[in-house]
Amino acid sequence: MSTSQSPAFGPRTTVEQVEEGHTLAPKFDDQGLIACVTTAADTGELLMVGYMNAEALAKTIETGEAHYYSRSRKVLWHKGATSGLTQKVVEMRIDDDQDAVWLRVDVAGTGASCHVGFRSCFYRSIPIGQPVDQAVDALKFEESEKTFDPKKVYGDVPNPTQL
Amino acid sequence: MSTSQSPAFGPRTTVEQVEEGHTLAPKFDDQGLIACVTTAADTGELLMVGYMNAEALAKTIETGEAHYYSRSRKVLWHKGATSGLTQKVVEMRIDDDQDAVWLRVDVAGTGASCHVGFRSCFYRSIPIGQPVDQAVDALKFEESEKTFDPKKVYGDVPNPTQL
């Protein structure tokens, strides 16, 4: 199997077909993955960036619930299967060269999508307009409270963050 | 130089420090890149997904204008240098495990960010809730008109889309 195409999806024949056609012909990288950006359908807030393999992309299309590929656990990942915080897909889009997907979702339960407990994975801002060495130790928290206790929700499941 | 760290940024010492600290300690992949999601500051619309190397990340922080690493041209890419459609960063965030960045931007000129001429790179939707084989040839255009003519703006610059 080609690393960049999957039998379940269309072929990539020309730049024009990929960019301006009606055929879903995603380009998976050399790990067999495509990037997925997930935003809250109601607020537009960026919740997370994940990755999908061909199976996760197909499952998401078929079920209307977000599925990813867990790079740390190396398995198909039905988001919310452990935490209950499933993501119902309201709209799904693909980009010009078809190497990235955008999901607009409604999140079940507390509405959180971050394993640390925050609503969004992007809970810290980076100051801009100054030399990098002044920004390095100046991340600012933009969410003040966790929406759930990760220890209670995940128990002994290994933390997916890798150093 | 480590592939996962850069001297310009902080060290990645523990999961807790990476996730809950104030130190910018991005994790670059084995290509030296980090994913970057760029949304319109005013509407929340997803404009593009790009990639940054350490230099692009530093330049973005220092100048407040979006810089990426072009994977097709293999160079630092000051977005808008050719088209005039520069992206002024309103807010910059980083995610829990620090392997993805979020830029909220104001785009100059026509407000477009897609080399095909559309406002957003994500101008096509994928139908959901049906078998994949029924979705494959059913991409739907969500933007009806291009905001500029790519041939006029880019001339003979090679198209970045790769098959």
Broad structural category of chain A: alpha+beta
Gross morphology of chain A is globular
Low-pLDDT residue spans of chain A: none
How many strands of chain A? 8
Largest sheet of chain A, if any? 4 strands, mixed
**End-to-end C-alpha gap of chain A:** 31 Å
- The count of helical stretches of chain A stands at 4
What oligomeric state best describes the polypeptide chains here?
A: homodimer
In short:
2 copies of one chain form a homodimer. With 163 residues, chain A is α+β, with helices and mostly antiparallel strands.
How would you portray this structure in words?
2 copies of one chain form a homodimer. With 163 residues, chain A is α+β, with helices and mostly antiparallel strands. In chain A, the strands form 3 sheets. In chain A, strands 2-1-6-5 form a 4-stranded mixed β-sheet. In chain A, a hairpin with a 5-residue loop joins β5 and β6.
Topology:
The structure is a homodimer of 163-residue chains.
Chain A: H1 15-20, E1 34-40, E2 46-52, H2 54-63, E3 67-70, E4 75-78, E5 87-94, E6 100-107, E7 124-125, H3 132-135, E8 140-141, H4 150-154
Parallel strand pairs in A: 1-6
Antiparallel strand pairs in A: 1-2, 3-4, 5-6, 7-8
